[in-house]
Amino acid sequence: MRNKNISTFIGFDNEYHESKIVVFGAPFDGTTSFRPGTRFAPEVMRRESYGLETYSPYLEKDLENYNVFDGGDLEFSFGNPKSTLESIYKYAEKILKDDKVPFMVGGEHLVSYGTIKAVHEKYPDLHVIHLDAHADLRDDYMGEKFSHASVLRRCWDLLGDGKIYQFGIRSGNKEEFLWAKDHTYMEKFGIDTLAEITEKLKDVPVYITIDLDILDPSIFSGTGTPEPGGLTFTEIIKGIKEFEKLNVVGGDIVELSPNYDTSGASTATACKVLREVILTMV
């Protein structure tokens, strides 16, 4: 998986040894509670990314000026979330031991746990910035502790209070919102305080996890759990720019389910979000 790939995301075609950031795919949707299909996201994004430019006019940076390696997709045992998380953890651990930064493309949101676990072991003071429509703070979903609906709760098990900052949240059960008041920072519905929080976190290691359903389904319908009332593309780009302040030591984007938007617009949006986030990290 650390050999050069024939098929890569645009601009991520450098050698492993010369790259600081390693992007890899986690094509898993084994705990998806509504509409499956996120397992196809990394493959489709690679292909569709060539409709973009490597240059970002938002950040005035070009991927061609930086070294990023695409490590391909990990292979998982179907229907086995814990085995999947262990595979992700071990791969991210190898990247971190080589003093590189892992960035994962999901897949459903549960996959974030594997990478966050590995990053937290290297950086015990890790803080997580979480952009999402859903709180993902259930202690379990239908009896399953490791679910895309409980992934941030499992991350809290690792990190503890005061380390998780949630933005854009507009869906969850009552207990999740009540629990968050005592254990996480949560801005419901938007990202108005993101600039303030990134300023606060600029001196600590940060992991960024973006569930793409934070975007409004009018512009991002290609997801398994669409929630009206989300961000515009302009708003999320404004938020992503704030990441340049941070010491980002890992990250991911998740929950594109490309087959639910046959126009390809959701995939193009996901590719552009990926490009912008990576360019804030270089």
Number of strands: 10
Total helical segments: 8
CATH class bucket = Alpha Beta
Distance between the termini: 22 Å
Integer tally of domains: 1
CATH architecture term: 3-Layer(aba) Sandwich
Category by helix and strand content = alpha/beta
| Uncertain residue ranges | none
User: Main sheet, how many strands, which sense, barrel?
Assistant: 8 strands, parallel
As a percent range, the share of strand residues is 15-25%
What is the multimeric organization of the chains shown? single chain
Topology:
Blueprint: E1 21-26, H1 41-48, E2 55-56, E3 61-62, E4 68-73, H2 81-97, E5 101-106, H3 112-122, E6 127-131, H4 151-159, E7 164-169, H5 174-183, E8 185-188, H6 194-200, E9 205-211, H7 233-241, E10 247-254, H8 265-281
Parallel strand pairs: 1-4, 1-5, 5-10, 6-7, 6-9, 7-8, 9-10
Antiparallel strand pairs: 2-3
Care to describe what's here?
The structure is a single chain. By secondary structure, the protein is an alpha/beta fold. It has a single domain, classed as Arginase, Chain A (3-Layer(aba) Sandwich), CATH 3.40.800. Helix content is 31%, strand content 18%. The chain has eight helices and ten strands. The chain has an eight-stranded parallel β-sheet with strand order 4-1-5-10-9-6-7-8, with helices on both faces. Helix 3 packs parallel to helix 4 (151-159). The longest helix has 17 residues, at 81-97. It is globular.
